[in-house]
Structure formats: C-alpha cells, structure tokens
Amino acid sequence: MPRFTGKVAIVTGSSNGIGRATALLLASQGAKVTITGRDAERLEETKQAILKAGVPEANINPVVADITSSEGQDLIISSTRKNFKKMNILINNAGANIPDASGKTRSNASIENLQKMFQLNLQSVVEMTQKARPHLAKTRGEIVNISSIGAGPSAQPQSVYYSTAKAALDQYSRCVAIDLISEGIRVNVVQPGLVSTGFSTAARGLSADDSEKFYNSMGEKPHCIPAGYCGQPEHIASVIAFLADRKASEYIVGQTIVADGGTSLVLGMHTEFGKPAPKN
Ligand code: NDP
After folding, report:
1. Which residues of the chain carry a pLDDT beneath 50?
2. What is the pLDDT of residue 15?
3. What is the ipTM of this complex?
4. Could you say which of 8, 18, 19, 95 would form a disulfide bridge with 14 (CB–CB 3.0 to 4.6 Å)?
C-alpha cells in the first residue's frame, strides 16, 4: 500500500516549485491533498500534473488563497475539513524573498518590507500552526516547515529580512515542536539550498530563462554547490515526504534537515587553498 494512503495533507505554496513537487509526491503516494496559492492558473497546472500521475480528482482540493490573510488561512483549513473530513499533514512551504518598493533586499530595505517578509515567512506559519493544531492533535499529525540555508549561521547580506525571518522560523519550529509533541504532533524543518524554482523570479525579477541559466551556472561552480548541480524541487520534496511520514521518521522531533548539495559546508577561503602561497 502506498505510504500516504488514508492521509490528508495541506501543502501551502503548491502552485509552483517545491510545494508543487511535494503535493505531487504525497498525492502519488496515496494522500488526499489540499493544494493552494494565490495564482489560480498555476494552481490548475499543479492539479493537472497530479491528475496526470493517475491520482483521482476527488483526492485533490485546490484552494486559491493568500496565506498571509486570516480569511485565506481559514478557507484552506475549512475546505480541507469539508472535503476530506480530517487533517494529518501540514506542509508550511509558501514563502518568498520579495524586494521592497525600490527593489532593495539588503539591510537598507524598507521597514514595510521587513514586516511583509516576517508576515509571509514566519507569521503565516505561526497562524496556520495554531489553526491546524486541534485537527492535527486528533490524528497525531505532522508539520514540516520549509526554511532555508539562508537562516544561517552564514550571513546573507543580499536577503537580510527574508533570511532573518527564516532564522526566526527555525527557532519557532524548535519551540513549538516541544509544545506540540505532547499532543502527538511532530514538527520538523527542511532547509533547502539553491533549488531551481520560481524563487529567483520573485526575488530578483529574473525571467524564467534567466532564472534557469542562473541556477545552472551555480551548479557548475563547486565552491557554490559541491554536488555539481543545482537542486530540483523533487530533491526537496523527498526530504519533506520523509519527515511527513511517521513510519520513516517517527523519532525525529523539532529537527532541521539541510538539503543543499553541500553548499552550506563551503567557506570562501576554501577556493584559495589550491592556489600557490603568496611570495613575500
Ligand atoms: P516558488 O516561487 O517557485 O514558489 C513559492 C510558492 O509560495 C508559490 O506556490 C507561491 O504561490 C507561494 N506563495 C508566495 N506568497 C504567497 C502568499 N502570500 N500566499 C499564498 N501563497 C504564496 O519558490 P520555491 O518553491 O522555491 O519556494 C518554496 C519554499 O522554499 C519557500 O518557503 C522558500 O523560501 C523556500 N526556499 C527556496 C529556495 C530556492 O532556492 N528555491 C532556497 C531555500 C528555501 P502564488 O504565487 O500562487 O501565491
């Protein structure tokens, strides 16, 4: 029997990228899935991809919603309960690094942008966790939060508020994991490195083609991605599914798995080590 048969999952941010791959994987392995995002067209593409994998339409519940709005969160939860009657898995994946009105993402970006980055990357996760909690307690469910290697410990001066919000998300996840495990709910985190998705389009205004070129070029630089290629959404989806599968990861509570092809282990100075020593 497929490993998620009988499970109901919500995957936020599943109209694209990592969320889409995760919804597809969970649904292909038996789960009923609520897929959600703001963009109705892209959400339909996710639905079609899942149908193409042979999943019955009745197992897919598309909800167009803004995850930062209370109404959007309520709709995602109520629609899941109405259609599938219960909830086993919450994947808090929606997130983005969005520049401020003047295009800034560094430490001089606006305070309004700071609030926006925290609202999307941290607060929406806190709110979804609070709203899902009573339902997940009934099923002894799982929560997987999608953070980023940007959360640290290395500095991320090119994406200060986004990275700071993700660091807060990591600590929130550890704290709430201890609270919720007493109700039988497990909380864990995945920190992706560079993954070829729409992320760079939102963060850096790149076209889809330029975004693809950027990710491929990073994959060719071993001092950026030692694995030698850029991550694909499926690489992250399989780690998320592992943490969402109680049989596979039952004793992992409040932990973070880094999936970055080795990126976060490389220091800039390593690129200098192969070079001849400077002569005095
Ligand atoms: P994508 O841009 O491809 O997907 C982001 C998803 O989040 C989309 O489905 C988007 O849906 C959704 N989303 C964004 N804002 C909102 C909102 N206000 N309300 C509802 N949904 C929203 O990026 P990724 O797949 O790469 O991103 C997934 C997660 O992975 C994010 O949390 C990101 O921070 C994290 N991550 C990504 C990395 C990468 O290199 N790609 C690296 C490290 C972490 P829509 O536009 O339809 O609203």
Report:
1. none
2. 98
3. 0.99
4. 19
Ligand 1 binding pocket includes 17 (Cβ within 6 Å): yes
Place of tokens 């201890």: 178
CB 195 within 8 A of CB 93: no
Residue closest via CA to ligand 1's atom 39 equals 195
Tally Cβ neighbours within 10 Å of residue 270: 12
pLDDT at 204: 77
How far, in Å, CA of 133 to CA of 222, rounded? 42
pTM listed for this prediction: 0.97
For the chain, domain boundaries: 8-273
Cβ 18 under 6 angstroms from ligand 1: yes
Q: What 8-state DSSP symbol labels residue 191?
A: E
What is the rounded distance in angstroms from the CA atom of residue 244 to the CA atom of residue 229?
Answer: 26
Ligand 1 geometric centre to CA of 121 (Å): 9
d(CA 65, CA 276): 56
Q: What pLDDT was estimated at residue 200?
A: 84
Q: Residue with the nearest Cα to atom 23 of ligand 1?
A: 199
For a substitution probing ligand 1, which of 11, 12, 14, 18 has the most ligand atoms within 8 Å of its CB? Answer: 18
Token pair belonging to 198: 């729409």
Ligand 1 centroid vs 93 CA: distance in angstroms?
7
Please tell me the distance between residue 266's alpha carbon and the centre of ligand 1 in angstroms: 25
Residue 208, pLDDT score: 87
